[in-house]
Design a protein that fits this description.
Helix content is 30%, strand content 26%. With 206 residues, the chain is α/β, with parallel strands linked by helices.
Length: 206
């Protein structure tokens, strides 16, 4: 997996700085690879990265898509646009909220959400909006931290922003998607005692 070099990031804002700190780097990269391995193989069509943040994943996604879109309700413009310019990549980037995406119905082939759904309290509403913009047969890949005593201790105050647990997210996604595949890290631990979970599901055909 490709990540832009540190010199291509004009401002090391949170959380992008953690990708370049040795102690945290391996975990933050593992989140991405866990989700990357669940994406469709080969060239994807139209992919929407929901909650793209600083955009550190966009160079890798651009290599794999015909048309790349990205939204975030708090775009970190300096890091994002500066990195895209230095990496010489183009993507359709917009400020937008997951609960009200500015796209027509059935617009995308793939939706990617990394560390987003745990911040949402209305999970059924979020999934409904996601499926509205996803084509029938399209793929959703989502990653989110596991909720347990260890992650509460490691994440500390940030747990206050986590409104939904991994179990709740998986339950709601499982009711709306088929062909669910779920993985977690580290893989040798039971899921509920791991650090991070990722899943893939397919929107049923109409």
């Amino acid at each position: 997996m490709y990540l832009p070099p540190k010199r291509h990031i004009p401002a090391l804002e949170d959380p992008i700085a953690y990708y370049y700190i040795p102690v945290f780097r391996s975990f933050f990269i593992r989140r991405l690879t866990l989700c990357l391995d669940l994406l469709p193989k080969g060239k994807m069509g139209k992919l929407l990265d929901i909650g793209c943040g600083t955009g550190i994943f966009l160079p890798e996604l651009k290599r794999r898509t015909d048309e790349l879109w990205a939204v975030d309700n708090q775009l970190q413009d300096r890091s994002l646009k500066g990195m895209m310019k230095l990496e010489n990549i183009t993507a359709n980037v917009a400020a937008a909220d997951l609960m009200k995406l500015p796209f027509k119905n059935e617009r995308f082939d793939v939706l990617l959400l990394i560390s987003i759904l745990e911040h949402i309290s209305d999970l059924p509403g979020a999934v409904k909006e996601m499926l509205r913009v996803l084509k029938p047969g399209g793929v959703v890949v989502a990653g989110f931290p596991t909720k347990n005593a260890l992650t509460d201790k490691l994440l500390g105050p940030s747990t206050g922003f986590h409104l939904s647990t991994h179990r709740q997210i998986l339950e709601v996604l499982g009711r709306s998607l088929r062909e669910m595949k779920i993985v977690h890290f580290p893989p040798f631990l039971p899921r509920d005692y791991s650090l991070y979970v990722a899943c893939r599901g397919v929107k049923p055909q109409a």
